[in-house]
């Protein structure tokens, strides 16, 4: 009997070779919010990786530079994202299933993994998931001047940095300007209401997860964000955990599913 081929996860490398660093939680279906337009297209696979680790699905990682995503995926014959759902044609996370088919976008990946590998369940129908998706853009909007420059400085590999900087600066100003003008205590204060709403979701059923004792896809959306904050450095994770200790508890409760990141 032949063994089934492992799934391949396409992910972005980081400059410190520390594994996956960025969630795919900024964008939501059919939205044109600023966080989506700024961040979608380079945020890879911490969320998809969490799902694979949680379900115990064998996989390997293929690292791909930011400016190579579109040409490489085209060469593989992967259909682009529908323009009505995503203005960027080719994005990560993307996985190749054992049957050779490709699935792009974290929401689609979650759905296909739940269909093919139903245990343990992701609870894709939980009402908390919609709440998480609604709150996250309101967290990222005020923090964009902290997150984007930090990603460029601390995580983006040298080969991808020019493309990253140019594509994010062309419409919204340089990363340097963004950091000068939008990275102070005022921005953390503006993010506080959204952070409190997220923490309330985690706390309302007793924690450490939004459903209480059982983890779900809604949690992985949040843990993907915390994974980015942790890898980003510059005290971003520590500041978040200080403001809302429930988010540190959520991250610590999810560490088993963060161990495999290569």
Structural summary, described in words:
- It is a single chain.
- A hairpin with a 5-residue loop joins strand 3 (94-96) and strand 4 (102-104).
- Strands 2-1-3-4 form a 4-stranded mixed β-sheet.
- Residues 24-44 have low confidence and may be disordered.
- Helix 5 (127-155) packs across helix 7 (175-181) and helix 5 (127-155) runs parallel beside helix 9 (217-232).
- The protein is built from 11 helices and 4 strands, in the order βααβαββαααααααα.
- The longest helix is centred in the middle third of the chain and has 29 residues, at 127-155.
- It has helices at 34-39, 46-55, 69-75, 106-116, 127-155, 161-172, 175-181, 185-203, 217-232, 236-243, 245-253, and strands at 7-11, 59-63, 94-96, 102-104.
- By secondary structure, the chain is α+β, with helices and mostly antiparallel strands.
Q: Topology, please?
A:
Elements: E1 7-11, H1 34-39, H2 46-55, E2 59-63, H3 69-75, E3 94-96, E4 102-104, H4 106-116, H5 127-155, H6 161-172, H7 175-181, H8 185-203, H9 217-232, H10 236-243, H11 245-253
Parallel strand pairs: 1-2
Antiparallel strand pairs: 1-3, 3-4
Helix pairs in contact: 2-4, 2-9, 5-7, 5-8, 5-9, 8-11, 9-10, 9-11, 10-11
């Amino acid at each position: 009997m032949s063994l089934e081929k492992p799934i391949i996860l396409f992910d972005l490398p980081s400059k410190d070779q520390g594994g996956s660093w960025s969630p795919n939680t900024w964008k939501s279906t059919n939205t044109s919010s600023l966080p989506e337009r700024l961040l979608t297209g380079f945020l890879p696979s911490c969320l998809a990786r969490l799902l694979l680790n949680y379900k115990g699905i064998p996989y390997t990682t293929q690292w791909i530079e930011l400016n190579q995503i579109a040409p490489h995926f085209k060469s593989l014959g992967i259909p682009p994202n529908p323009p009505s759902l995503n203005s960027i044609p080719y994005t990560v996370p993307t996985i190749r299933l054992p049957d050779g088919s490709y699935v792009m976008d974290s929401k689609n990946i979650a759905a296909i993994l739940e269909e093919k590998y139903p245990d343990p369940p992701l609870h894709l129908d939980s009402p908390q998931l919609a709440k998480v998706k609604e709150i996250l853009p309101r967290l990222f909007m005020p923090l964009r001047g902290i997150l984007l420059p930090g990603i460029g400085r601390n995580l983006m590999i040298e080969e991808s940095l020019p493309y990253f900087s140019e594509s994010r600066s062309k419409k919204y100003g340089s990363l340097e300007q963004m950091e000068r003008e939008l990275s102070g205590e005022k921005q953390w204060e503006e993010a506080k209401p959204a952070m409190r709403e997220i923490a309330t979701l985690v706390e309302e059923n007793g924690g450490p997860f939004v459903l209480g004792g059982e983890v779900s896809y809604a949690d992985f959306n949040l843990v993907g964000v915390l994974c980015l904050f942790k890898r980003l450095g510059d005290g971003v994770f520590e500041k978040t955990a200080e403001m809302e200790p429930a988010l540190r508890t959520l991250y610590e409760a999810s560490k088993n599913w963060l161990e495999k990141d290569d």
